[in-house]
């Protein structure tokens, strides 16, 4: 029942124009033949070094590099093992980097200025038009978001967050339309992170899973021998499996494993004894900063709904009993249901409930069945409002 899913879309690139294959004896053999070309004309980009880089299991590797001439023009050639995602960097800093895809035999041309390198005009391939459009959309989002962070209008935090969500939604709308209209476009691997769950599956639309699977299948049809797409497909499969678990654990039909542990006075308390109430099972610890910061919100919601059939069963991953007891008092955790086996990460309850970090919560209905997982903050408040303010 692990709900934090990340999508890794890098793979090991093993050759470039500055590398040579090595024979078993350790002597260099003939370099691999160039199979891509990137040219560019960068205004005010004279005598700059450009690097094509890729992520690997051991970190960033350099695939190719080139230096522009006195007019800002450069030509870069190299060898790639297959279709994949790369980064083109201008200069020695990480401030001017653009993502791009490459397919063997691509001939890409980039027009930009040094100041607008992150919003270039790209041509020469079937994916370059989409890249150009996306970089302009994202560039405008980045510009407005930077202004929003400066907040010259002194807007309240809530309105700043609302405006950020609107800006972000605009980028997502562009991306989703592209993914749906042209699922086989190679540049889609740069876009699909917008469709994956970022903080678990609460509120994540199932249509995004359909979208991801359509793109993966379209890319597999186009690049059937690509290890890159094969890896992408495996990770989308993992997302699908975790999403199915999430749906099951929010169905209200799967019973939560019982928990029987000692309270601060040494008496055994059982989760199952709380049936007949809605129960938030809250996994936390005195040493967990995010848990302690969330506690005021949990206390507020407990006080708001405790007389409407809601309670909390707090399970601590503490090892020091005195630190555990002191945190309960200091944070005002006034509900009576506090337990711990004082085994920290060795506690069997971690395996039972399938989490790897705290704070972690599950919400149970009156029958003791799962109805929501890993709710906190505004999401927890909204769910309780749905239950108790119908």
Descriptive keywords:
390 residues; alpha+beta; 4-stranded mixed β-sheet; 5-stranded mixed β-sheet; 2 domains; 9 helices; Glutaredoxin
Please describe what this structure looks like.
The protein is of the alpha+beta class and 390 residues long. It folds into two domains: 36-246, Carboxypeptidase-like, regulatory domain (Immunoglobulin-like, Sandwich), CATH 2.60.40; 260-388, Glutaredoxin. Helices cover 35% and strands 22% of the residues. The protein is built from nine helices and 15 strands. The protein has a five-stranded mixed β-sheet with strand order 13-12-11-14-15. The protein has a four-stranded mixed β-sheet with strand order 4-1-7-8. Helix 7 (321-330) links the parallel strand 12 (310-316) and strand 13 (338-339). Helix 4 runs antiparallel to helix 5 (227-249). The longest helix has 25 residues, at 157-181. The chain is elongated.
Note the topology.
Layout: E1 36-43, E2 49-56, E3 59-67, E4 73-78, E5 84-90, E6 97-102, E7 107-113, E8 121-123, H1 128-150, H2 157-181, H3 188-191, H4 206-222, H5 227-249, E9 260-262, E10 268-270, E11 278-284, H6 289-305, E12 310-316, H7 321-330, E13 338-339, H8 348-353, E14 360-364, E15 370-373, H9 377-388
Parallel strand pairs: 1-7, 11-12, 12-13
Antiparallel strand pairs: 1-4, 2-3, 2-5, 5-6, 7-8, 9-10, 11-14, 14-15
Helix pairs in contact: 1-2, 4-5, 6-9
């Amino acid at each position: 029942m692990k709900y934090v899913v990340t999508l890794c879309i890098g793979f090991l690139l093993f050759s470039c124009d500055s590398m040579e294959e090595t024979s078993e004896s350790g002597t260099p053999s003939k370099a691999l033949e160039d199979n891509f070309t990137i040219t560019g004309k960068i205004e005010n980009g004279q005598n700059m070094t450009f690097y094509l880089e890729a992520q690997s299991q051991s970190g960033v590797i350099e695939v190719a590099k080139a230096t522009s001439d006195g007019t800002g023009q450069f030509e870069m050639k190299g060898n790639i093992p297959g279709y994949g995602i790369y980064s083109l960097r201008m200069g020695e800093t990480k401030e001017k980097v653009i993502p791009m895809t490459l397919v063997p035999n691509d001939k890409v041309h980039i027009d930009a200025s040094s100041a607008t390198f992150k919003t270039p005009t790209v041509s020469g391939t079937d994916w370059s038009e989409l890249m150009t459009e996306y970089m302009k959309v994202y560039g405008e989002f980045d510009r407005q978001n930077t202004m929003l962070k400066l907040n010259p209008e002194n807007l309240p935090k809530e309105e700043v967050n609302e405006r950020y969500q609107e800006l972000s939604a605009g980028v997502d709308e562009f991306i989703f339309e592209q993914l749906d209209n042209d699922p086989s476009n190679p540049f889609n691997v740069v876009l699909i992170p917008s469709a994956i769950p970022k903080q678990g599956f609460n509120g994540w639309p199932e249509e995004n899973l359909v979208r991801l699977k359509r793109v993966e299948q379209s890319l597999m049809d186009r690049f059937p021998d690509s290890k890159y797409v094969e890896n992408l497909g495996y990770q989308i499969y993992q997302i699908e499996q975790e999403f199915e678990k999430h749906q099951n654990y929010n169905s209200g039909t799967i019973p939560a494993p019982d928990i029987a542990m000692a309270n601060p006075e040494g008496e055994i308390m059982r989760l199952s004894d709380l049936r007949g109430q809605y129960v938030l099972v809250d996994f936390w610890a005195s040493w967990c900063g995010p848990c302690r910061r969330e506690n005021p919100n949990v206390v507020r919601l407990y006080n708001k709904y405790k007389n409407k059939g809601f309670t909390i069963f707090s399970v601590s991953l503490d090892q020091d009993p005195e630190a555990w007891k002191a945190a309960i008092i200091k944070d005002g955790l006034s509900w009576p249901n506090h337990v711990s086996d004082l085994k920290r990460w060795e506690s069997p309850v971690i395996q039972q409930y399938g989490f790897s970090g705290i704070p972690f919560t599950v919400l149970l209905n009156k029958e003791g069945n799962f109805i929501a997982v890993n709710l906190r903050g505004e999401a927890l408040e909204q769910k309780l409002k749905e239950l108790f303010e119908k």
